Amino acid sequence: MGISARDALATPSILGFGASTFAAGVIPAAIPIAALAGTLISDPGQIRHAGDRHATVAETAGKAKDDTDAIVKPADGFSTPAARQAYDTRMGQYTKALGDTKDQHSTLDTMMKIAGDVWIALGAASLAVGTALALQAAGVISVSWLPGANAAAFAEANGFAGAMNVVLRGIVTGLRGIITKIITMLKGIKDLSLKRKLILGGLAIGGVMGHSYIGNAVSSIVPVTKPSWPTNAPQTT
Length: 237
Hints:
Layout: H1 11-24, H2 31-39, H3 44-72, H4 81-142, H5 149-185, H6 194-201
Helix pairs in contact: 1-2, 1-4, 3-4, 4-5
Transmembrane segments: 14-41, 118-146, 166-186, 198-222
Keywords: Membrane, Transmembrane, Transmembrane helix
């Protein structure tokens, strides 16, 4: 899979947690924010990498369908119309299954990319709030030696942290609502191949809570027929 620039997408969530943790050591009201920021540590780049894998499968299935269509089109070489009809019927089942496979993996690619973008937004929110809190904490430290000023700065910083807690939790609730909807849509395809299960099984959709989000959750946001592969040879006589 390799490392790409997208792997740096994990950095904002890590920095946000670090900044919030620093602030929590000075501002007690920032402690719940640091705890929440810890659950937002994620690697959106890996989620998007997984989407790329599905895009590759979709591209391969689409090419296979086109190649199969090209083979089916010639009408010569059949002894009877019934033989031709049997061939067309069976090969049509293959091309339909390939088309369904392409649609499924294209949809999975799209949903993985959306999920990755949501976690990018969560990481950015964590970093923004953590940075603001760290600045407040630095301000408290800078006047800690001044009687009166230190108490005022401490009270102000705790009030600010309380407000930021409300803001961050509101953002998290909204964006995790999107993730929940994605997971609700990612259901229904029960007969995954072992390879597809392995690809999805190790995915962390984000943070400490993310490992169980998408391990076996696969389906489509749009109606897609499950591939049905032919099993019996056609009768040509």
